């Protein structure tokens, strides 16, 4: 292109510049700051029902933001070529951080929209007709900057709050696993916003190799559908999920297993209150450590279903449970249930062989084995249950021999 054509095209490609405001318009605008602020607060009270329902200190904070925004606009309009990067500090600097908790971003933008409408309605009284379009354009440009600034403030507050909540969750999980005193634990749980502190279920599984933040948010979204409150803690290669006031049976826990990494997911017995959380968590963690000893175990698997593996892995809670809930009820029962069960297991689960060993009829053996199931809750005719019963006999005899 020729130099003449370049010169002709240049003005068309250059961004249009708004004319500088006249000194008379700036003077009237400065004189109207008080009127604009008063009118804006009146409009907020009339147009926004949620504003009227706020506490006095919150209304005062919002009013201060509105007044500061108007006065800052006047300063910026005096030099429209500058970029209002200082909007965040000047407009929102006086607002308390807690305001982002009680006022949503949508409400903040609604407040901004109302203030813009107020300023635009006063334009005819401030500027002559030749400057009104430029003033309205400046109002819109400034409101855009304030809107972005508000979004930034809320995003930073949410990020800070999320990071703080994650640290609190990690502390609560650590406190539960280490058996912190009940009063202190209850205070920590209340601090993270748990509304219900009963019927607590704890799940332990592997942490997926994918992004941990995505895993935690996805798990929490699913968990909240089936419990009143949820808490997630990532402890290296394993993750802990705590649910309070669960709304589903144990079978439905399988809906949560897909969020964990490969491997077993072990759930604890139900803890009635916060006081029993540590014991439930200890059972789930011990079950997770011992679950690999049962490769065919269903997933998820209850910690109580892993008593034999946990006991062999050194878990005293499991050993005590086998002795107190299986071995002793058999010893205290009549009709020689323990002797019949021991013979039945030793003779390869043979009813006829057990009958010959004990000099009784085979139907008697069947009846006694049925009684074993009623007394202990474990059926000796089921291979897995028979293994649990045999382990209980083993640890029960060892316990008695060491007394």
From TrEMBL:
Pfam family, one: GGDEF_2
Biased composition (Polar residues): 14-23
All residue ranges annotated as the CdaR GGDEF-like domain in the record: 179-285
Domain PucR C-terminal helix-turn-helix: from-to ranges: 337-394
Disordered, as annotated region: 1-23
Gene3D superfamilies to which the protein is assigned, alphabetical: PucR C-terminal helix-turn-helix domain (1.10.10.2840)
Membrane-spanning ranges: none
Family membership: Belongs to the CdaR family.
Name this protein carries in UniProt: PucR family transcriptional regulator
Organism whose genome encodes this protein: Glutamicibacter arilaitensis
